[in-house]
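Action item from last meeting closed. Structure (246 res):
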């Protein structure tokens, strides 16, 4: 895909999303970020895009609400003139013991991680058709990609991220005739969650064959690689330093 003067929407402008946006801007892409509550971080991500002499915009969107997806996508296309790339990165990641899980807990994760990706993709496809094609990149997880739930307390998250893989494959077939390629990235130990102790950092690094955490740039490189390729669709790419092998 020729990236210069295209427009991308990244649902989520914190940490990894911000770095992905900056790297896309360096390749000539105008970038929109959506956020639920992290307005400051989204604005900082937009500024990093503008520093690359590309246009940027931020939009508040609660993707747990079904109408928000179409409204977000249409707002981005209206503001930046088109939409070529959708990166479904918005995610809810919470730990709850299985015995205490409620319907609300289940919905909080599934509604954003899976349904939100579906609804944003559905809204984006007509805009991409008008440009003669496009790219959708979803975000799963290395554990879901490996088909082995390893950690207790993440039932909705694991189910949602496994569903994202199925969604990616199904949309790749549905949209192939429109030259819309659909793939997913499944991050492993990339950036530690807030509150991670030094001992926990060390334990994860030692369990990873490459012996370290990856960092946000590894995800940005994977995204750019998928965008550059015109013959990969329906794939979920693990970026985990070989973590799934242990």
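Sequence:
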């Amino acid at each position: 895909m020729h990236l210069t003067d295209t427009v991308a929407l990244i649902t989520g402008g914190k940490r990894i999303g911000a770095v992905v946006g900056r790297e896309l801007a360096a390749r000539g892409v105008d970038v929109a970020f959506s956020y639920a509550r992290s307005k400051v971080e989204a604005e900082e991500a937009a500024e990093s895009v503008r520093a690359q002499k590309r246009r940027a915009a931020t939009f508040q969107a609660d993707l747990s609400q079904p109408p928000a997806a179409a409204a977000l996508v249409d707002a981005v296309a209206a503001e930046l003139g088109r939409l070529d790339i959708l990166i479904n990165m918005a995610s809810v990641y919470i730990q709850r013991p299985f015995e205490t899980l409620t319907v609300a807990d289940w919905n909080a994760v599934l509604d954003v991680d899976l349904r939100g990706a579906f609804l944003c993709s559905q809204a984006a496809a007509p805009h991409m058709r008008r440009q003669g094609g496009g790219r959708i990149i979803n975000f799963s997880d290395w554990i879901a990609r490996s088909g082995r739930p390893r950690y207790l307390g993440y039932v909705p998250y694991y189910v949602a991220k496994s569903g994202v893989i199925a969604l990616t494959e199904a949309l790749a077939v549905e949209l192939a005739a429109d030259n819309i390629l659909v793939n997913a990235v499944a991050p492993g130990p990339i950036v530690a969650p807030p509150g991670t102790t030094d001992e926990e950092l060390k334990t994860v690094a030692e369990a990873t064959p490459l012996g370290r955490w990856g960092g946000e740039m590894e995800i940005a490189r994977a995204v750019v690689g998928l965008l550059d390729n015109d013959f990969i669709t329906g794939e979920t790419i693990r970026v985990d330093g070989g973590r799934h092998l242990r």
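Note appended to the action item: The two ends are 35 Å apart (CA to CA).
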